[in-house]
Specification:
Radius of gyration: 14 Å
Distance between the termini: 45 Å
Order of helices and strands: HEEHHEHEHEH
Strand content: 15-25%
Number of strands: 5
Number of helices: 6
Strand order of the largest sheet: 2-1-3-4-5
Largest sheet: 5 strands, mixed
Structural class: alpha/beta
């Protein structure tokens, strides 16, 4: 598998950002994800629904994974997410052999992407300002709804 082209990564991130915005419109946490096939086909997309569904396991990555349906193999696939994946979602990537993770931003939450890289998953961190702004604003406006214990809270 060739290393991820940054232009392509940003293009795919747009899908995850659409999902993050959809989650925010629903009153949820603005985290979106998309799973792309090795050939660049969009397999599945989704957003965090923890608040909307009252389900702590309804993360954006799991939503996109479920939307993709069962695949013969996940080798060569790319999980694109607006926020660094938590340990739960990082485990999903490892469990199913997803080859690459594109992270919109890792400043508000530094999840398991370093661990994934240590275990052979290609990780591309884009430091996208819109992804960071969405999460910072959400945390500022919703201090009681924290998506992860380690989300950086803005200074007051």
């Amino acid at each position: 598998m060739d290393p991820m082209d940054k232009h392509q990564a940003r293009s795919w991130l747009a899908t995850a950002l659409e999902e993050a915005r959809a989650g925010l419109r629903e009153g949820g946490i603005p985290i979106g994800a998309a799973l792309y096939g090795a050939d660049g086909t969009l397999l599945g997309r989704g957003h965090n629904r923890r608040v909307q569904d009252g389900d702590p396991s309804a993360h954006a990555e799991t939503s996109a994974f479920r939307d993709a349906g069962r695949q013969r193999s996940y080798r060569g696939t790319t999980m694109v997410t607006t926020l660094s994946p938590c340990w739960y979602c990082s485990g999903l990537v490892r469990q199913f052999g997803i080859s690459r993770v594109v992270v919109g931003e890792a400043g508000t939450f530094h999840g398991g992407h370093d661990w994934l890289a240590e275990h052979g998953v290609e990780v591309v961190v884009l430091d996208d300002p819109e992804c960071a702004a969405l999460m910072r604003e959400f945390v500022r406006e919703n201090p009681d709804v924290v998506c992860h214990e380690n989300v950086s809270r803005p200074a007051t």
